[in-house]
């Protein structure tokens, strides 16, 4: 008589796969993060920053392109202060309806 291959924990494994945790929102734009999450230091590590926040890679690239480390240190964890910059506000408004895994080339840092 042949044995049936039954996984006694099969139902538990299927439940765990079905209940994926909700995506973490991006710190800058507020959209849900996709497959790639960048853990960004709002205050740069070189300036004593220890806290990290989840971001899309494209959002992090935008911050790096528009602010120096000194400016990021001054803003700290204040997202609203960063959004007062017209270039960042324009970017966030533009990216608001894009897919969470959307990526595009960014402009070079202007000095």
From TrEMBL:
Biased composition (Basic and acidic residues): 1-15
Region of interest: Disordered: 1-24
Domain of life: Bacteria
Protein name per UniProt: HNH endonuclease
Organism: Novosphingobium anseongense
């Amino acid at each position: 008589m042949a044995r049936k291959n039954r996984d006694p924990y099969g139902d538990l494994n299927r439940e765990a796969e079905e209940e994926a945790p909700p995506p973490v929102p991006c710190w800058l734009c507020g959209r849900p993060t996709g497959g790639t999450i960048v853990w960004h230091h709002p205050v740069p590590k070189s300036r004593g920053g220890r806290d990290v926040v989840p971001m899309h890679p494209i959002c992090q690239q935008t911050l790096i392109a528009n602010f120096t480390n000194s400016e990021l240190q001054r803003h700290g964890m204040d997202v609203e202060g960063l959004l007062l910059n017209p270039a960042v506000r324009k970017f966030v408004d533009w990216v608001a309806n894009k897919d969470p895994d959307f990526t595009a080339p960014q402009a070079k840092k202007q000095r």
